[in-house]
Amino acid sequence: MTNKFLRYFVAVCGVFQLVLGTAAHAWAQVPGGPEVPAMADDLRASGKIYVVVAAVVIIIAGLLVYLIALDRKVSRLEKRAAVEGGFNR
Fold it and tell me: CA–CA distance from 71 to each of 33, 59, 60 (Å)?
């Protein structure tokens, strides 16, 4: 495949995603629908919403730390491969 084709394909996919994302968001705004889900009201009233938010923050922070550590390991391997002349000796 050519570079020109890939650029065109990525541009078309981006426009397609933008159109579908906007349309889906517009369809979700149905008048007369419930303002806030009942589950969110119950969690907020009992104070458990903070536990849910804390769990989500911990999970996202853990993923971020993992990705940073993985990036550092890959960078170290790339530097070592560059010094030693590549992986295929």
Answer: 44, 18, 16
